Amino acid sequence: MPIPLSTKEDDDEYASSTTKALLPFDTDYSSTQKPSSRSTVLIISLVLATCIALFAAIAFGFLFFTVPDSSTSSSIASSTSTNIEYSRSLTKLKHPVVLLISSDGFRFGYQYKTDVPSINRLIQNGTEAELGLIPVFPTLTFPNHYSIVTGLYPAYHGIINNYFTDPETGDRFSMASHEPKWWLGEPLWETVVNQGLKASTYFWPGSEVHKGSWNCPKDYCMFYNESVPFEERVDTVLKYFDLPASEIPSFMTLYFEDPDHQGHKVGPDDPQITEAIVEVDKLIGRLILGLEQRGVFEDVNIILLGDHGMVGTCDRKLIFLDDLAKWIEIPKEWVQSYSPLLAIRPPPGYSSKDVVAKMNEGLKSGNVENGQYLTVYLKEELPSRLHYSSSYRIPPIIGLIAEGFKVEQKRSKRQECGGAHGYDNAFFSMRTIFFAHGPRFGRGCKVPSFENIQIYNLVTTILGIQGASNNGSVSFPQGVLLPSH
To answer: Where would you find the membrane-spanning parts of this chain (predicted)?
Structure first.
């Protein structure tokens, strides 16, 4: 229906009734009583000024009563400084014990892939390298495991690679070489025995070598056999705690090949890695349960770590030495290792300096596929942070390869993807883990990342023994361990 138009009288009447409806009851508010605009502004100003003053008073009172003066602050600091946490006393064991566990190829970050309740128990109630443990260069299994137990860089402990040739004798080192001549330095099991204590090793690289006072005693030194189930390894270590108190080894090692085994096959991001991490966590849970059943879990200093990380590789990330033929030919007989550490030893009569110059000229020319991802050095000109020059065993020419790339002699039709390690230890993908739990480690503590050569001094400090000279810092343990009583 059409809406009738209002007249002026209707509008005035509607306005008058609306105004009255908005006023308090019993208010006779005639047009002559309306305040002027100047009065309105004055009232609003007074209200705003009152609010500001009230707010300022509240803020001042808050600051006055909550911020302590300098004397109060100093007294709080004084009382806090005296509240130092000390190492916890042993409840059942009669002497300190360190159990060093290696999970090969456990890249830092794997612990976030899935639920790992047992590992998290160590982390939450122990000490963690917050951004991982830094391996030594090259980030390979044998050099790093031996650095962990000697506190020495590979150039000083002699295991410069998983495989290499002694240039003076022509002898070839492999991971099955147990002659003492290869293994320099003093590993922890030898140090412990030198101090009159007992040690046991389960599959740690170098532990089978008869060296110094260590003769790899029966039942305390296991010869490597990868077919031994992981659960059996854990149970063997647990049995040491069933011995009389004086017979329990002060230092023990335990080694698992996983998740390195899976990482090489499928790379670091495959579901198989997650499955392997779950299995490692179950092994740690089995260990913890066994220690708890024996009443010694809180007495044992457990250090769970890895030797290196892992990065994905694929055959599209290849560099071929034969592509350098226009500048210089590199025969395969010169090459001691291709990837991920290129090591070249030219025969007598060739200048290593000239070889390096010609190789880099070709690699930087833009005419060698992926050439920009390889840089070749004389070993003495490598970055000093790598500590990889002070050994005659290290070949004179070393090539640093970009993360995830590989060097091969010649082209092939092979197409495969997987994982690798051994690269520059500055790559974050090469980092591994450090989780420690026990009476000498604070609960829920985070420490900055550090190189694994510091582990040696950490262990000798816990055991209260004198260690051999090494590349680690003697003061390092003070920043990680709780002070003893």
So the answer is: 41-65
Helix 271-293 vs helix 117-124: crossing angle, to nearest 10: 60
The residues assigned a catalytic role are 141
- When pLDDT is averaged across residues 30-48 and rounded to a whole number, the result is 51
Please classify residue 431 by burial: count the beta carbons closer than 10 Å to its beta carbon, then call 0-12 exposed, 13-18 middle and 19+ buried: buried
CA distances from 237 to 105, 221, 253, 291, 378 (A): 22, 11, 9, 10, 45
Indicate the domain borders of the chain: 97-312+425-479, 318-416
Of the pLDDT bands very low, low, confident and very high (cuts 50, 70, 90), residue 413 is confident
Sheet containing strand 300-305, strands side by side: 221-222, 199-202, 251-256, 97-103, 300-305, 434-437, 127-129, 445-447
Cα 119 from Cα 281, distance rounded (Å): 6
CA distance from start to end of the chain: 97
- Report the amino acid identity of residue 423: Y
Residue 187 and residue 189: Cα distance in Å, rounded? 6
pLDDT at residue 140 tops 50: yes
Question: Directed axis angle between helix 230-240 and helix 271-293, to 10°?
Answer: 20
DSSP states along 188-252: HHHHHHHTT--EEEES-TTTTS-BTTB---TTTEEPP-TTS-HHHHHHHHHHHTTS-GGGS-SEE
Q: Which of 81, 85, 156 is nearest to 456 (CA)?
A: 156
pLDDT of residue 10: 39
97-312+425-479 belongs to CATH 3.40.720.10: yes
SS3 472: coil
d(Cα 373, Cα 292) in Å, to the nearest integer?
A: 51
For residues 455 and 191, give the distance between their C-alpha atoms in angstroms, rounded to a whole number: 13
If one looks up domain 318-416 in CATH, what number appears? 3.30.1360.180
How far, CA to CA in Å, does 420 sit from each of 25, 154, 245, 257, 265? Answer: 86, 19, 43, 15, 9
Whether 39 shows a pLDDT value over 60: the answer reads: no
Backbone angles phi, psi at 314, to 5 degrees: -155, 155
Point out which residues pair with 165 in neighbouring strands. 172
